[in-house]
Amino acid sequence: MKAHSTKLRSIARWLAGTACLAALAMPLTAIDAAAAANCIKGERKAPYTIGWANIYSVPTWMKQTEGTITAQVEALKKEGRVKDLMVTDAQGNAQTQIQQIQSMIDANVDAIIVIAGSSSALDRVVSDACDKGIAVINFDSLVNTDKVTSKINTDSNEWGSKAAQWMVDQLGGKGKIIIMNGPAGVSVSDDRRKGAQPVLDANKGLEVITETNTEYNVAPAQEAMTSLLFANPEIDGVLSLGGALSAGALLAFDRQGRDPVPTTGENARQFLELWKEKGIKGWATMQPNWLGALSVYAAVQALDGKPVPARVKVPLPVIDDASIDSYLARADKFPADGYIYSDYDQALFDKLLTE
């Protein structure tokens, strides 16, 4: 009896050891895939239904971004991997966006692509989508919660830091500047501003005389800058943290008959053209519109059981006097009030999803 018990214990120890070895031998790709497939549960098989929860569609950047989303969906439809695209427009209202995402949850879409109208207000509904087994890909303006499949973005803090450092270098660390921000409460705008602050703190000779928040559109930015020009006769630089904002600022300077000053921004066609036309000192970077297409591609990859990182960092390019002509050479391919973004393809997407 004692010998029998000893034998059973030996067998149990052997089985436990075998199980541990099997777990250790499990391919890393399988472990990574399980981690990458956060939120995805239940029977979800291609072709998939994708939801695109847009915060607002009026700005040209958003229209171009939606264009990359629909183009990616059409390509995946031809491959038999996507069936439908559900599109909503919250018209800038975060509460409306919450209701629209809830409708997508109720419809049991397979994936939701979202630009958040509020970094905090959407946390509960996004988490609920994740709990219901829906793939959630959040890009550009991010939610606070990590209950998503993946967050895809450039580094907005780095964006603000690099723009501020360029301004410091241009002005020799001394001068009066105006800061132009996007809408308050939108994470991409707030994070750019936060990124600029440590550089400003380290360079006390750079005086921020005032700053403003406007929509990412030329007209309201021009109106805001016009008011600031009347109130501030001496301005040495414009630290603009958005492309349409920069175009609006330069137009305001021109309409008031004032010489333009060093200005930062991004790849808005109108800003780049004014930069070249006026011969200003400028610096810009790019928030690629194809982040939308990449988000759709990532959602389908995750639904297919392939590894997708919880966070995907897209590198920031630099547009300066040495590279601006290469962007303007392609200007006629984009709307006059649009953004000149770089080319993209599946090879680029695969590279970004494996880095």
The largest sheet, given as strand count, sense and whether it forms a barrel, is: 6 strands, parallel
Class from secondary-structure proportions: alpha/beta
What is the percentage of strand-forming residues?
Answer: 15-25%
| Quantity of strands, as a count | 11
Strand order of the main beta sheet, please? Answer: 2-1-3-4-5-11
Q: Helix-strand pattern, N to C?
A: HHEHEHEHEEHEHEHEHEHEHEHH
Radius of gyration, taken over Cα atoms and rounded to an integer in Å:
24 Å
What is the share of helical residues?
40-55%
**Could you report the average pLDDT, rounded to the nearest whole number?**
90
* Low-confidence residue ranges: 1-36
Tell me what the CATH architecture of the largest domain is: 3-Layer(aba) Sandwich
- In whole angstroms, the N-to-C terminal distance is 58 Å
Q: How many individual helices?
A: 13
Question: CATH H level of the largest domain: which superfamily?
Answer: Response regulator
Annotated CATH topology of the largest domain: Rossmann fold
Organism: Mesorhizobium liriopis
Family: Belongs to the bacterial solute-binding protein 2 family.
Protein name: ABC transporter substrate-binding protein
Keywords: Signal
Report on the structure:
By secondary structure, this protein is α/β, with parallel strands linked by helices. The protein has three domains: 2-36; 48-153 and 289-315, Response regulator (Rossmann fold), CATH 3.40.50; 156-285, 3-Layer(aba) Sandwich (Rossmann fold). 48% of the residues lie in helices and 16% in strands. It has 13 helices and eleven strands. The strands form three sheets. Strands 2-1-3-4-5-11 form a six-stranded parallel sheet, sandwiched between helices. α10 links the parallel β9 and β10. α3 (60-78) packs parallel to α11 and α6 packs parallel to α7 (187-201). It is elongated and about 65 Å long.
